[in-house]
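User: Can you predict the 3D structure for this chain?
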Amino acid sequence: MPLKSKQPRIAPLEPPFDVEAAAALDQLGPPIQLFRVWARRPDLAHGVASWGRYYFSRRSALSVRQRELVIDRTTALCGADYEWGVHVATFAEKAGLDAAQIRSLAGGNPTDACWDPADRALLAAVDELHATCDLGDATWADLVAAVGEDGALDVLLVSGWYHAISFTVRALRLPPEPGAARLNSP
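Assistant: Here is the predicted structure, written as structure tokens:
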């Protein structure tokens, strides 16, 4: 395990923001640390914002709950405390996640009693993608039965994207946002 530095490796921008950074942050959302790192490169920030606008809109084939199950489980499996905490704090209630489900996402299993069959299929797919970078035929069939083919494609892409986000926040050594949940808390 790499040593953790006390400071982020790339410092997030601090206010006042120049015009380009402010415009990028307006597209990304609240000025959390990760967004302020991306805003150092406004073109990068605008590209990320475009991708996010699709997955955080009603155009995605995934419901808010399904999307957050994928994101929360992926970031937990990657040990991305920062991103997991941001999503749990921001979306857990909107996704209808209760305390037992949040604990299970952080360190439990898709077979935990708190999950219904559709949630189990989705979480099993995320776990298998993380472990093998692929899905077996049975896992694929269960996932498609739970979310449809379009939803399954979105699961693959969201899980992959949140692996990239997890790599980023971990390698940057971003500390948790104030008041955010922690993966290792009871």
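The mean pLDDT is 94. The helical segments are 19-28, 33-38, 42-55, 64-77, 81-91, 99-107, 117-132, 137-172.
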